[in-house]
Specification:
The complex is a heterodimer. By secondary structure, chain A is of the alpha+beta class. Chain A has 5 helices and 5 strands; from the N terminus they run ββαβββαααα. Chain A is globular. Chain B has a 7-stranded mixed sheet with strand order 3-5-1-12-9-10-11, with helices on both faces. Chain B has a 5-stranded mixed sheet with strand order 7-15-14-13-8. In chain B, α5 packs across α6 and α17 packs across α18. Chain B starts with 12 loop residues before the first helix and ends with a helix. The chains are: A alpha+beta, B alpha+beta.
């Protein structure tokens, strides 16, 4: 007999109510129950980071969180980054700096960097260095790019966001 | 500026950045079942019992199958056969029946409503195996048919005389560690049957979809057009993804048998024990030199550990190893011998630069040891022995992949000079500031360099269709497949250049067997060379056809027309022109512009055929820092200089090279499939199988050289997929040897900390390096 629970979570601003098995991972809930297939599973043991999402403003591995733990939470996935057809500055920077090839790890890197940059720009004195970005990017695995484009894209986004006047979008 | 050579943004990027890619597991079918493979827990043994009773009764389980349930004799044949070899006794069964030969070998499949339930039920399958001793060291495996799948030799000249008459003979042993491609996306397959027609739609096959479709059709005994392999995004290929594995029969067969869609999504532990391994070789290599340091002979005796079975690559990797081993040098006499040994480990196949990563490491490491023994600078020794531009084309009496080995074009000494010069300019050989008083002793720095020849553009053919639709959009249907390399962008640039249109109006379809039934696939760095040339030819034919129709529409002679960015017009008359959309409509049936009996449509199919490969080449340079106390190696600087003939999109070439370096660093320093004495794999997660992160991969300096256009194709291109990884093992080994001041070679890759510590201790005892004793004293 399945141990199911009713949960309610918000994904990219949209509310979802559903029943999930207690052992079902948030990654599977997002991908297979709610159709957010942009969140990818590369290892299912929390190392590769391809499934990184933002859960209540913090980047987490969706393969290491149960769906029931996300009850009442706000989730952001890669599908929520762009504004309609307009790519976000971070997404555009990834394309400009050739930060992706197969694109499988890309959603994880985007959400990792998005959470980090959001926090970093809150601290105005923070001047991100390449070393800091490299350390951040070292949280996840990419098998195609050699990371150079990813580091450059995150740094470039950090710089443009810092130089942007407050309140501008 | 021409579209060819432009750093255009990739067509693939927007969908992938939005999370709208279509990877295998992103696709589901209504009513689909899930499959879970039950795998052998033992490395070697006889199957005494396989009881699926409890599993079959578990909640949510539809069916459990074992070898006895399969139709008789599905055998996965060798895709890349080497003439003169018969490997039929060593092929892997789809499901093991009586004997298991490696941990991870498929024994049964559980099919059910939910992947969690299937995984639970798979645990209930009772496997009883009488364990037998596991053969784990290919070097000590007894000779004989049971263990030796093949013995191959490549060579020419009088090798014995060369060594007998040599002024200097230098020998080293070098072991290359077992590792492989490990794309970030695990394998996935979805098979959707149509019980009424017998058709099967397959999602998740890539690399060689037409070959796989035909093979599946023959194994299932159905017409190949009933099987439609659909295009999917692939999360990295690197040689391993897309070969025909046991699962590629099992999942479609189950779907057809159960008349339900069946999906299988591999987990990472499965991937690391089930997907093709690669690389594990033991080289005993020797070179003979004359008094001037010129190579007079090269001899390599290699043991190749192929794991438990022969898979689709047959013995292509060992064949490539001995065929490509002489590399860019003038080698008057050569002998490469390789014994392909079966052991109780995961079977092997190709991994990016197969046979070359291994052979380049052995040859280039030998040259560094030789340079020291002969008292010649490492770069000078190479320069003296490199083939010169005047010696091109250079034919070697060697065949590989059924082609004659002819080094077609290039200036190897010029590229070596460019790489060394750039490394100097960037300060690779500038010593760091010394440690001041009270600061810890500096770590040991080492400089490494290696030269290599790659291969690319394997034939025999690739086919492309180019069609202009009524909106004026251009559609390319290529037999290549996407692995994430940017093939859509590159083929769009090639088609746009030939047709004189904006590449944004070009739509590229790859990997779909209905859209392009004659595709040969994407592997062996062939997509831009062979696939691109086919697109170039088809697009050029469409352009000619468009000019012919425009001449009728404009009532002008074809010779008076010119192509103007999507339009064809009369030269000297800007107002007299027709667009591609108008021309496409003029090619519709019943158009007044078509002559009686003339086929309708603005499209062309062309096949580009090639009998030989084209051979790019390059140099790698690295600076490493070794901590002799911990054995840790850090790669500080890395440079790749690589000749590609012509870069369609230099940004993508650079990306290929940088990504290859990162993977190569993994194989040189970190990644290794090790086994315990019982044959249990020790690397079954990303905790133990350590792929480099951004902390281990430095920024890579790149020189994309376009000095030697390939004479073998209309675009002048050479493949760029494997030049980034080819020489990383060699270059890192040479740099670490330099750092430690070793007299001999490093002996073994990857250079893990425990191995480097031992080398550092040996170097310290031999008094080779003052810094080592300083470091030891400070510790």
């Amino acid at each position: 007999m399945k141990d199911t629970h009713a949960i309610c979570l918000t994904v990219n601003g949209r509310e979802h109510e559903l029943a999930v098995e207690a052992r079902r991972t948030l990654a599977d809930v997002l991908r297979h129950d709610l159709g957010y297939t942009g969140t990818h599973l590369g290892c299912e043991h929390g190392v590769c980071g391809a499934c990184t999402i933002i859960l209540d403003n913090a980047p987490v591995r969706a393969c290491l969180v149960f769906g029931v733990q996300a009850d009442g939470a706000e989730v952001r996935t890669v599908e929520g980054l762009a504004d309609g057809e307009q790519l976000s500055d971070l997404q555009q920077a990834f394309s400009d700096h050739h930060a992706l090839q197969c694109g499988f790890c890309t959603p994880g890197f985007l959400m990792l960097a998005e959470a980090y940059l959001a926090e970093a720009t809150d601290r105005e004195e923070d001047q991100l260095t390449e070393e800091q970005v490299r350390e951040l990017v070292a949280s996840n695995l990419c098998r195609c790019t050699g990371y150079q484009g990813i580091v450059e894209a995150v740094l470039a986004t950090a710089r443009t966001r810092r130089s942007r006047p407050k309140g501008a979008t | 500026m021409s579209v060819i050579g432009a750093r255009l943004p990739r067509k693939e990027d927007p969908r992938l950045l939005r999370g709208r890619g279509r990877f295998g597991d992103d696709i589901s079918a209504p009513g689909q079942l899930w499959a879970r493979i039950v795998r052998s827990p033992c490395a070697h043994g006889q199957v005494r019992g396989l009881d699926v009773t409890r599993a079959a009764k578990a909640a949510g389980v539809t069916k459990v199958v074992t070898a006895g349930d399969l139709p008789r004799g599905p055998v996965i044949p060798v895709r890349l056969a080497v003439p003169g070899t018969n490997l039929s006794d060593h092929l892997q069964p789809v499901l093991a029946r009586s004997t298991v030969r490696y941990v991870g070998e498929p024994l049964a499949v559980v099919v059910g409503e939910d992947p969690y339930a299937c995984e639970d039920a798979a645990e209930l399958v009772e496997v009883d195996i009488a364990e037998a001793p596991a053969a784990l060291d290919a070097r000590t495996a007894p000779a004989g048919h049971e263990n030796t799948a093949a013995e191959l030799t490549a060579g020419y000249g009088d090798i014995d005389a060369a060594f007998a008459g040599a002024r200097h003979v230098v020998r080293i042993d070098l072991a290359i560690g077992r590792h492989t491609g490990v794309p970030l996306e695990p394998r996935c397959l979805l098979a959707v049957p149509d019980p009424d027609t017998g058709a099967l739609d397959i999602f998740g096959m890539t690399k060689v979809p037409v070959f796989n479709r035909d093979l599946l059709a023959s194994l299932l005994g159905v017409d190949e057009t009933l099987i439609h392999v659909h295009a999917v995004d692939a999360g990295g290929g690197f040689g391993v993804r897309g070969e025909f594995y046991p699962e590629d029969f099992l999942i479609p067969w189950l779907a057809a048998t159960l008349a339900r869609p069946v999906k299988w999504a591999e987990d990472r532990a499965e991937h690391l024990t089930a997907v093709n391994h690669s690389r594990e070789q033991y080289h005993r290599i020797a070179a003979a030199f004359d008094a001037d340091g010129r190579i007079t002979g090269l001899d390599d005796d290699i043991t190749h550990d192929n794991g438990a079975y022969i898979r689709t690559h047959g013995v292509a990797v060992p064949e490539l190893t001995v065929a490509m081993l002489p590399g860019p040098y003038r080698v008057p006499a050569y002998r490469g011998r390789i014994r392909v040994v079966l052991t109780n480990k995961t079977p092997c196949g190709t991994y990016r630069a197969p046979g070359r990563f291994e052979g380049t490491a052995a040859r280039e490491h030998l040259l560094d040891v030789a340079a020291d023994q002969l008292g010649i600078d490492r770069i000078e020794l190479r320069r003296r022995n490199l083939l010169t531009a005047g010696e091109m084309p250079h034919e070697r009496p060697i065949k590989t992949l059924r082609t004659d080995l002819v080094l077609d074009v290039g200036d190897y000494p010029a590229l070596l000079a460019a790489a060394a010069g750039e490394a100097d300019r960037l300060g690779y050989r500038t010593p760091p500031d010394g440690a001041g008083p009270g600061q810890p002793a500096p770590r040991l720095r080492g400089f490494g360099l290696a030269m290599f020849v790659e291969k690319s553009g394997l034939g025999p053919q690739e086919t492309a269709d180019v069609t202009v639709s009524k909106s004026g959009a251009v559609h390319v249907y290529s037999g290549g497949t996407s692995m994430g390399q940017g093939i859509e962008t590159v083929l769009a640039q090639i088609a746009a250049a030939a047709l004189g249109v904006d590449p944004r109006t070009v739509h590229v379809t790859t990997g779909d067997t209905a859209a392009q039934p004659f595709g040969a696939g994407s592997w062996a760095s062939r997509s831009t060379v062979v696939g691109g040339s086919a697109v170039h030819q088809a697009a050029t034919a469409v352009r000619q056809r468009a000019v012919q129709l425009a001449a009728r529409m404009l009532e002008a002679g074809p010779g008076d027309l010119e192509v103007r960015s999507g339009y064809i017009g009369v030269r000297g008359d800007p107002s007299a022109q027709v667009g591609l959309a108008q021309i496409a409509r003029a090619a519709e049936p019943a158009s007044p512009y078509l002559e009686p009996g003339e086929p309708a449509g603005l499209s062309a199919r062309r096949r580009f055929e090639v009998s030989r490969m084209t051979y790019p080449y390059g140099a790698h340079v690295a600076v490493v820092e070794v901590d002799p106390g911990t054995g840790q190696v850090r790669v500080l600087r890395y440079l790749v200089a690589y000749e590609v003939g012509r870069a369609i999109n230099p940004m993508l070439v650079e990306g290929q090279l940088r990504g290859g370096v990162a993977q190569g660093i993994g194989g040189a320093l970190f990644e290794e499939f090790s086994y315990d004495d019982a044959g249990q794999p020790q690397a079954i997660s990303f905790i133990e199988y350590r792929m480099p992160t951004a902390a281990e991969v430095p920024p890579v300096d790149v020189i994309v050289s376009q000095d030697a256009p390939s004479p073998g194709n209309p675009l002048g291109v050479m493949g760029a997929g494997e030049g980034g990884i080819n020489a990383v093992g060699a270059t890192i080994a040479n740099a670490v040897r330099d750092a430690l001041g070793l007299a001999g070679g490093v002996g073994q890759l990857p250079l893990t900390p425990d191995r480097v510590r031992v080398l550092a201790e040996q170097a310290g005892r031999a008094g080779r390096h003052d810094a080592v004793s300083r470091e030891g004293g400070a510790a």
